[in-house]
Amino acid sequence: MKKIGIDARLYSQTGVGTYLRNLLHYLVKIDNPDIIFYIYLLPLDFDQIEFPSKHFIKRMVSARWHTIAEQTTFYGEIMRDDLGLMHFTYFSYPVLYKRPFIATVHDITPLLFKTGRASTLNFIFYEIKHQIFKYVLSAQIKNAKKIITPTQTVKDQLVEYYGKNIEPKIEPIYEGVNFELLNAKKNEKLRAKLTTPFFLYVGNFYPHKNVGRLVEAFKRSRQKSKLLLVGPDNMFAKKLKDQIKTSRIENIEFMHDAKIDDLVYLYKNAKALVNPSLSEGFGLPLIEATHFGCPVIASDIAVFHELMGDGYVSFDPFDDEDIAEKLKTFNHLPPTLRSEYSSLVRRRVESAEHKNKIEKFSFERMTEKVMELYMLS
User: What pTM value is reported for the model?
Assistant: First the structure.
């Protein structure tokens, strides 16, 4: 009987949390009788999750990521379970762990955009934290038996940063549309609240997400439509709200804690999804928007081209004027052309070619490939 551990401490988070929830959802359906999975969860998630199979054993750990406790107590917990393989699902792990493991590296944004502005810490503490992060990630890359990336773009970035010797052990495996979204119905109650046509942004508000520049570009575009920013209510959201207030922009709204059925409605009714990010490992909102027939206007960056090809309107994410121009061009299309464009998107969504592409972007297929790595490692 092979014992495999999965680090699920970020289960409730956005981004990596979506990855984990889908991995575990589909992994239970495979339920290989020759494997026992040990799922490591924080206390806040432990009682919220039940697995229908006796082959999935929950372990409660209080050690959060990027902490000393991760290097000590979490290390001790996984060592006691004497695992045949451990799957670290985030670029943070106990560096003393020398038993076989695979790692998922979702992106290398913290390496590409080194800036204290992305942290609530002061500059000195941020520098210390950043150096520790670089050391931990380097050790993870060096010692992992296999490395999973969500795209070829991230694999290429890792090879460029760490050298060609790691290339053979990196496996790009595409993600997909969250199973919770696939099974949800749209919240029609939002129709009464969102009476003005709106552009949509979905994601975090970290500096590399570049939403501040989108806000300024939106002001330049002189929209009658609204810009709806969907994401967490935190320090970065507050900075954006201060920016919007200072710039006296009236047609931008926030939606915090959006539920799954809210997102279905938003994707189905937005004029377009707008994503100005400077760096991503994948781009879940783009795939989700496309699944629901929502046009996409987004940054001209390699990872988005890998995912979308020419199936989106691209702009220079460093150029306010270019972003504004793309928004104006899209907004000023005659209603008949906008309708034709939306119909074209929806026909593409329903086409055999698109269905094959969506199948490629599938959390179920991702989980099957991860299982193959478990068996081979």
Answer: 0.90
